[in-house]
Specification:
The protein has helices at residues 2-12, 17-24, 28-35, 43-53, 57-65, 70-74, and strands spanning 106-109, 124-129, 138-143, 146-155, 158-162, 171-174, 180-187. By secondary structure, the chain is an alpha+beta fold. The protein has a seven-stranded antiparallel β-sheet, with no helix packed on it. Helices cover 27% and strands 23% of the residues. The chain has two domains: 2-65, 434 Repressor (Amino-terminal Domain), CATH 1.10.260.40; 106-187, Ribbon (Umud Fragment, subunit A), CATH 2.10.109.10. It is globular and about 55 Å long.
């Protein structure tokens, strides 16, 4: 998956493989093997590739560390993760993470009752930023400029965002909708 993202970004940015390989200090064959998923880059090489492509090193390490489920890969879920962006927060406050919560990038409040009874309105939610989602993960997403916490599902060629509370309608998103961005996976306390 790391190689696929590197290749997509290189092509999108119109960078020749020879130039990217040279900037990363590797030969084009090595880069080709990385892009095809035959080899994994070392952390040093990954950092150089991320720097050249302006990608989030943290996100790419996460992708390398966590396997992407077959179904998520089939739907190209990584297309919806903002690996070239960072989250903007205006008010910073340190909070304690509950026992069992790991790899959390941000903490916020649940804004509505859509996920009740699993997540109550106004309760604290813990988000693993830029996480690649698997079916049935609870996630924080942006869609048409609005934030939603929903259960992530895949139906045919659409992504479905389902609420636990039946008073909230399911949101269906067409494949490759540019207004849909995965912010991260919700990590629930034990």
């Amino acid at each position: 998956m790391v190689g696929k993202i590197i290749r997509q970004e290189r092509i999108k940015q119109k960078i020749k493989s020879k130039d990217l390989a040279e900037a990363a200090g590797i030969d084009t064959g090595h880069l080709s093997h990385i892009e095809k998923g035959i080899r994994n880059p070392s952390k040093t090489i990954l950092a150089k590739l991320c720097n050249e492509l302006n990608l989030s090193y943290q996100f790419m390490l996460n992708v390398a560390k966590n396997s992407v489920e077959e179904e998520s890969a089939a739907y190209d879920v990584t297309n919806y993760v903002p690996y070239d962006k960072v989250l903007y927060a205006e008010n910073f406050k340190l909070v304690n993470c509950p026992k069992g919560i790991h790899d959390v990038s941000l903490v916020t409040k649940m804004q509505d009752a859509s996920m009740e009874p699993i997540i109550a309105k106004d309760s604290t939610i813990y988000v693993h930023y830029t996480s690649v989602l698997a079916p049935n993960d609870i996630c924080l997403v942006s869609y048409h400029g609005n934030l939603f916490v929903r259960t992530f599902k895949m139906k045919d060629s659409q992504i479905a965002l389902s609420a636990e509370n039946k008073d909230f309608e399911e949101i269906l998103i067409d494949e490759n909708d540019p207004d849909f961005v995965i912010i991260g996976k919700i990590i629930l306390p034990d």
